[in-house]
Amino acid sequence: MNYTDLACSGGNRWDELKEEMRAAASELGIDKIGVASAAPFTELKQRLIRHRQLGRESGFEEPDLDKRTEPALLFDGPQSIIAIAVAYPSKLPSPPKSEPGARRGVMSRSAWGADYHKVLRDRLARLEAWLRERVPELRAESMVDTGELSDRAVAERAGIGWSAKNCSIITPEWGSWVYLGEMITNLPLPPDSPIEEGCGSCTKCIDACPTDALVGPGQLDSQRCISFVTQTKGYVEDELMRKIGNRLYGCDTCQTVCPENRGKNWTHQRELQPDTELAKPLLVPLLEMGNKEFTSRYGATSSAWRGKKPIQRNSVIALGNFKDPSAAAHLVRILTDDPRPVLRGTAAWSLGRIGGAEAEAALAAALHKEMDTEVKMRIEQALQQIILH
């Protein structure tokens, strides 16, 4: 079929192209395709304004709310937005055990396998090439996660899934274990209809959130979300450090408790399958890791985008939460020798959690030579905690 004459093509031809595209999804490595209109996301803009007023943004988002909600500001003459979903695994095969003396952290599923940004860009590039073969006049702009548009808002409008109470898109077929991307085009493809919301009265995600970051159905306070906190670079407040547990990057709690995800685990996307030692790594070796080794081991995953410092800080926090005395010597080395104040201050907190004579002596010695005011304060707090307990 020839779709080249855009100006004269009838509506049926675009219907046929859309169905042909949907049928080709699997061979393109895409698990679901939907089409949304390119009209402004008016309701979303109002929610985003309110979100900002309440101070609930993460700071990782596109700051211009007009660009986030008006496709015409990003693309000349948008006619439709093609949304795609690619399913990813939710279970580790034969996960290694975390044991005394060999404690492990956990990476969220979004950091398993190859960086999903690259995988989704590859799938969108395949789709664009497929479309261009049929419509040489195609103009398209693709984006994944870091683009201006809201992936979830586009996916919801395109009928990929419904916007759930945990702020994920839940698809009937794949649950919420899907990565999302979109392509703005000049093709007048007929839009799909949104899927009816399917959460019902269930509030398991809201009830299970470790930090109460889900402040209501579909309402997230990003500043309290563990997934966000693990990706920050500064100090983490005491309450949140305790809630982080042994998470090194991201948090999956609101998805793992979701009934729609029960029993769902997808292993057909080869690039997204996990290396168990990277997904659940030993904590102490992470503390010793230099930039070159970190890049070699984690550079191809999505967890590497912030560098090794947040992950090493989270490793220090995890060791404190395990309260494993065998970790004290490693934390003392960081407290006394690491050039990064945030790492030294966090090591003090963890030593305070572990307690014992070795930790107390190391903290007392470090207090006398530490020059950083913030670190000194945290050492004092850690010593006080040991004394009180």
Summed up:
42% of the residues lie in helices and 10% in strands. It is of the alpha+beta class and 389 residues long.
Secondary structure topology:
Elements: H1 11-24, E1 32-36, H2 42-53, H3 65-69, E2 80-87, E3 106-107, H4 116-134, E4 140-143, H5 151-157, E5 162-163, E6 169-170, E7 178-185, H6 204-208, E8 214-216, E9 219-220, H7 226-229, H8 238-244, E10 247-249, H9 253-256, H10 276-279, H11 283-288, H12 291-298, H13 308-322, H14 328-337, H15 341-354, H16 357-369, H17 373-388
Parallel strand pairs: 3-10
Antiparallel strand pairs: 1-2, 2-7, 4-7, 5-6, 8-9
Task: Describe the structure in your own words.
The longest helix is centred in the first third of the chain and has 19 residues, at 116-134. The N and C termini lie far apart (77 Å). The strands form four sheets. Strands 1-2-7-4 form a four-stranded antiparallel beta sheet, sandwiched between helices. Helix 13 (308-322) runs parallel beside helix 15 (341-354) and helix 14 (328-337) runs parallel beside helix 16. It is of the alpha+beta class and 389 residues long. A hairpin with a 2-residue loop joins strand 8 and strand 9 (219-220). It folds into two domains: 11-185, no CATH class; 204-388, no CATH class. It has helices at residues 11-24, 42-53, 65-69, 116-134, 151-157, 204-208, 226-229, 238-244, 253-256, 276-279, 283-288, 291-298, 308-322, 328-337, 341-354, 357-369, 373-388, and strands spanning 32-36, 80-87, 106-107, 140-143, 162-163, 169-170, 178-185, 214-216, 219-220, 247-249. The protein is built from 17 helices and ten strands.
